[in-house]
Design goal:
This protein is mainly α and 419 residues long. Helices cover 69% and strands 0% of the residues. Helix 1 runs parallel beside helix 6, helix 6 crosses helix 8 and helix 13 crosses helix 14. It is globular and about 70 Å long. The two termini are 39 Å apart. The C terminus is likely disordered.
């Protein structure tokens, strides 16, 4: 390939890394260009035998391709319309960005450049949120008084999760920087992590973001502990929750809302709260899965299925449901049955297994992102939804690509063992 095409390849990778911090229209454009570039590279490698073949190490890429092939095939028996089925396949298809990044990123230097673009733009979002919280008006952000949130380009739910993941990535990947810059970067990273966690717990009200951040802090503390003390790790999240409940009005209010919402749903079937809505959607989703456990009802069918179940089991109070199941696992279960849940879990397991082959900084960063995704998917469609799903795919792809192109070990230094 020509030098200009190689430069364009890296430029598109960086554009995608930057785009996930920007409005959804820019993300869509960047995604299209990235996939076209990856397709061009694959076709070129197929016809030019002299070209270095593209390889996809590990099991993540094959597992993603299998899952997406199953999802696309399910559109043949979908109970949704053809437009709904196609839209769902496209939304699930954002997972293809992970193999695309592995195809396009060829060196560790390229991975570091793209990762730097990703982190800098996410820090820009973090800084913008703090400026809004301090009362400054920003031309690229909505007025919090009218929007009801300090989020930039997205919702407080999305950005609270993204901010927690940013803190984990910065903390674990600081060791990838050359030793001569590490002291300065450690100071900067500590400041970023402190601001990010404070933002999640004291500015944003997203309860999923609180859960994700607590889990990521717990993991970071666990990895820093001597092995003989790790048995007490269960106490860490409990202590963090208690501490935050006493000091953060956002966390305390969120815990009270969860409790009251669950109680109201259990006693009277009330679905006016966030917890009540989720519990009702999960109940209807499980009813749909129980009716179609083997094949599901096809891609894009979740809307019709949820409304069919609601009309069937609660005809007196039926109100048309417009939301997705607010649970990624159940979404795949509706569309592909129990095998769909297994495929989604298979993708997460493949990511974890591939992380075990990486050096310590990349391994811990990748496992943190996988843990955040697995947790967020319990309460939201963290992959299916726009922006947050793109964020997760790009974050996973960048750290995986960085780890695949491992840094050469220092003379006499043994490779870190996996955890």
């Amino acid at each position: 390939m020509t030098s200009s095409f190689l430069n364009m390849r890296l430029s598109l990778v960086c554009f995608m890394a930057i785009a996930v911090a920007l409005p959804i229209g820019i993300i869509s454009l960047a995604k299209l260009l990235l996939l076209l570039c990856a397709l061009t590279v694959l076709v070129s490698g197929w016809f030019r035998r002299s070209h270095t073949p593209v390889s996809f190490p590990g099991t993540t890429a094959p597992m993603i391709l299998l899952a997406l092939a199953a999802m696309a095939t399910s559109s043949l028996w979908s109970t949704g319309s053809s437009d709904e089925a196609m839209s769902a396949v496209v939304k699930h298809g954002k997972l293809i960005m992970i193999p695309a990044f592995l195809c396009l990123v060829r060196t560790r230097r390229e991975a570091l450049i793209a990762l730097a673009c990703f982190i800098v733009t996410q820090v820009f979002l973090l800084a913008s949120t703090w400026l809004l919280a301090l009362g400054l008006a920003l031309p690229w952000a909505k007025n919090p008084a009218t929007s009801g949130s300090f989020a930039i380009f997205s919702t407080y739910l999305d950005q609270s999760i993204m901010t927690g993941v940013l803190a984990a990535m910065c903390w674990h990947l600081k060791a990838c920087v050359p030793a001569r810059h590490r002291t300065l970067l450690t100071i900067i990273t500590t400041i970023i992590c402190a601001l990010a966690l404070a933002c999640v717990f004291f500015i944003f009200q997203g309860r999923t973001g609180h859960v994700v951040a607590i889990a990521l802090v717990t993991l970071a503390l666990l990895w820093e502990m001597p092995k003989r003390y790790r048995v007490g790790v269960v106490a860490i999240p409990l202590a963090l929750v208690a501490l935050l409940a006493m000091n953060s009005g956002k966390v305390n209010h969120g815990l009270m809302e969860i409790g009251s919402g669950i109680e109201a749903f259990n006693t009277s079937g009330d679905i006016s709260s966030s917890s009540g809505i989720r519990l009702n959607l999960w109940h209807r989703s499980l009813q749909s899965i129980s009716e179609n456990p083997v094949w599901g009802t096809g891609a894009g069918s979740w809307g019709r299925e949820l409304n069919r179940q609601e009309a069937l089991h609660a005809p007196a109070t039926f109100v048309r449901i417009a939301a997705n199941p607010h649970q990624e696992y159940l979404l795949w279960g509706i569309e592909l049955g129990v095998p769909g849940i297994a495929l989604l879990c298979g993708v997460l397991v493949a990511l974890y297994r591939d992380s075990r082959r990486l050096d310590t900084p990349e391994r811990r960063a990748l496992q943190s992102i996988v843990a955040a995704l697995a947790l967020a998917s319990l309460f939201n469609c963290a992959l299916y939804d726009a922006l947050i799903g793109d964020f997760f795919c790009v974050a996973l792809a960048l750290v995986l690509a960085l780890g695949v192109h491992a840094a050469p070990p220092a003379p006499g230094a043994p490779r870190a063992s996996s955890v």
